[in-house]
């Protein structure tokens, strides 16, 4: 069948990952809960806010490196808390310095404190500078297909449109825009922000996303470690369902077996 989908590896910046779940490291009760939840998630890529996370630059404070080893996880420093391109670029340069030349970053330029919606104009400006400076840029953006296309043309290695506003748990609010982005994409598309529970993650994967990034959905759950494990399975289920291809929707059922030849 010509429409049969074949799986392909999840590759970022030349490296292949088995897990398609990326998780944040903030908002947990303590470092131990952070460690346990991330282990339960099965994630291989963990993201952290450069401006809020201690990687050893603040002696005497809890250090993320004490619970998450760079040998086990790929670190994805992000620019959370930045509201213009200049600030975001400076933050990525700091991350590169702190992590000894690390180039993989998550660009996130916010429009305001209330909605945390992306400022796409400043995001485009920052992306151009960072790509020119050799960063591998994964970029948080709106679900506007035109902006996603422009970010890919600039040279970002992945676009990460929001499903819903950061921290809301509303799920995928506009699957139609997301489908357009996925149809046009020549680089990986990851849902970032808005996931609230396992079914949201599954839907994102069923639509054809390469992966899902989340933090609040796990950290703010009543039992974060249990939710992390649920998300691990949700991502796998969604990917398999996407590859399998769902049955067509119909207004009403038809007989599953032929009626001819029944005993009367």
Explain what you see.
This protein is an alpha/beta fold. Helix content is 35%, strand content 16%. It is built from 8 helices and 10 strands. It has a 5-stranded parallel sheet with strand order 5-4-3-10-9. The chain has a 3-stranded parallel sheet with strand order 6-7-8. Helix 1 (31-41) runs parallel beside helix 8 (224-244), helix 3 (120-132) runs parallel beside helix 4 and helix 6 runs parallel beside helix 8 (224-244). It is globular and about 85 Å long. The mean pLDDT is 92.
Could you name the key traits of this structure?
single chain, 264 residues, alpha/beta, five-stranded parallel sheet, three-stranded parallel sheet, 16% strand, globular
Low-confidence stretches: none
Strand-residue fraction? 15-25%
Which strand order does the major sheet show? 5-4-3-10-9
Record field, number of beta strands: 10
What share of the residues lie within helices?
25-40%
Overall residue-averaged pLDDT value: 92
User: Could you say which overall geometry the principal axes of the C-alpha atoms support?
Assistant: globular
């Amino acid at each position: 069948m010509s429409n049969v989908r074949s799986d392909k590896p999840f590759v970022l910046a030349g490296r292949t990952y088995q897990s398609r779940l990326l998780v944040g490291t903030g908002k947990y009760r303590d470092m131990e809960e952070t460690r346990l939840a991330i282990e339960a998630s099965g994630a291989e890529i963990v993201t952290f806010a450069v401006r809020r996370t201690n990687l050893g630059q603040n002696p005497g404070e809890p250090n993320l490196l004490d619970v998450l080893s760079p040998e086990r996880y790929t670190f994805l420093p992000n620019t959370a808390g930045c509201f213009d391109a200049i600030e975001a670029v400076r933050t990525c340069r700091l991350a590169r310095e702190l992590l000894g030349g690390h180039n993989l970053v998550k660009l996130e330029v916010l429009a305001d404190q209330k909605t945390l919606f992306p400022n796409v104009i400043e995001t485009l400006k920052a992306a151009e500078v960072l790509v020119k400076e050799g960063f591998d840029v994964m970029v948080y953006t709106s679900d506007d297909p035109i902006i996603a296309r422009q970010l890919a043309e600039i040279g970002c290695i992945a676009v990460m449109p929001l499903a819903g506003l950061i921290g809301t748990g509303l799920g995928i609010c506009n699957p139609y825009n997301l489908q357009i982005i996925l149809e046009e994409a020549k680089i990986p598309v990851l849902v970032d922000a808005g996931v609230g529970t396992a079914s949201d993650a599954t839907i994102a994967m069923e639509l054809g996303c390469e992966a899902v990034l989340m933090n609040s959905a796990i950290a703010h759950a009543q039992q974060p470690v249990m939710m992390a494990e649920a998300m691990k399975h949700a991502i796998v289920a969604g990917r398999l369902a996407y590859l399998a291809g769902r049955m067509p929707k119909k207004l009403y059922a038809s007989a599953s077996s032929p009626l001819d030849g029944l005993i009367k």
